[in-house]
Amino acid sequence: MGAGHGHGASTESAAGRHRWRLAVSFGLVAAFFLVELVAGLISGSLALLSDAGHMAADVVVLGAALVATKVAVRPDSTGRRTYGSYRAEVFASGVAVLVMLGVATYVVIEAISRAGDSVEVQTGPMLVVGAIGLAINLVSMLLLRAGAEESLNVKGAYLEVIADAAGSVGVIVAGLLVIWTGAGWWDTAVALAIGVFVAVRAVGLGRQVLAVLGQHAPEGLDVDGVASDLESLDGVADVHDLHAWTLTSGMNVATAHLVLQDGAETAPVLQSAQQLLRDRYGVAHATLQVEERASAHCAELSW
Q1: Contact 253/92 with Cβ under 8 angstroms?
Q2: Strand, helix or coil at 298?
């Protein structure tokens, strides 16, 4: 019996490679948040306040993402975190979901409470601050876009910035509608639409976070296909106890038991299996247990 380990994974996660993007975006958003909050209070615009709430969510989400990328590579002093602290990035994405849902809930409740009320808003601050906020969010989106394809952590921040950019557009649209129609309720209606949009985005990200924490197979990876490809390798008679999951974005992990054909050598089979998992399925770390056909008495577990 032998064991094989694929050690092709980098010690730096996908989010860690894009940490500078998170840092620059965090600085831009944090610098603008207080300006938008004050402008929202002065103008009386719920749409502007909702966008300020999104900015606050951005600050929390980007800050959590930055902390998570630092924690993820911190050496383990307890000896208990055998996979390190990479999951901190996934928890940061969970924080992003909760913050987005919280902001969306506040905006929707506030919009409903204003229903039927006569609302007066100052459109000048709405348009100016909304335009500046949109510019900042567009810059942040460009910075985070590349990392969002690789990292769930960066994707959480990216989606939050997209939602905030939509909020800034909503602020501008609301201001223009109030000017054109003279009806202040447009501000409330746009704020309500923004809140619903943010909630939908949060639910989508939340499903991805739960899939990682639930140790589902990586998205797009066909477990049956992996088993079939492993069985087709020279020297492999059977494959069982195959498991695959995502540790954090860009770090897929798998384990499997390989039953060798009579006369097959262990080392070539392990090398072929690890290369297959790495090159075809993006599994850079594989732990493989090899069994001789005649002595393969590994009983399948019920879980």
Answers
A1: no
A2: coil
Domain interval for residue 276? 217-294
Hey, CA dihedral for 201, 101, 166, 13, is it positive or negative?
Answer: negative
Specify if 247 maps to a domain. yes
Does 260 share its domain with 122?
Answer: no
Note whether 153 and 276 are same-domain residues. Answer: no
pLDDT given at position 118: 62
Which tens digit of pLDDT belongs to each residue from 226-277?
A: 999 999 999 998 898 899 998 877 788 999 999 998 888 889 999 999 999 9
Torsion over CA: 261, 264, 267, 272 (sign): negative
pTM of the entire structure? 0.70
Calpha distance 99→94 (Å, rounded): 9
Q: What is the pLDDT of residues 150-177, one digit of tens each?
A: 776 677 778 777 877 877 888 788 888 8
Residue type, 31: A
Query: Taking a C-beta distance cutoff of 8 angstroms, is the pair 212, 90 a contact?
Result: yes
Question: What distance, in Å, lies between the first and last C-alpha atoms of the chain?
Answer: 23
Reference 258, options 237, 232, 284, 279; nearest CA is 237
pLDDT at position 64 is: 73
Strands, sheet with 285-292, edge to edge from the N-terminal-most edge strand: 2-5, 285-292, 251-260, 236-248
Backbone φ and ψ for 118, nearest 5 degrees, come out as -85, 115
**Last residue of some domain: 187, 213, 239?**
213
The residue among 213, 245, 274 that closes a domain is 213
Q: How many domains does the chain have?
A: 2
Do β-strands 2-5 and 285-292 pair in parallel, antiparallel, or remain unpaired? antiparallel
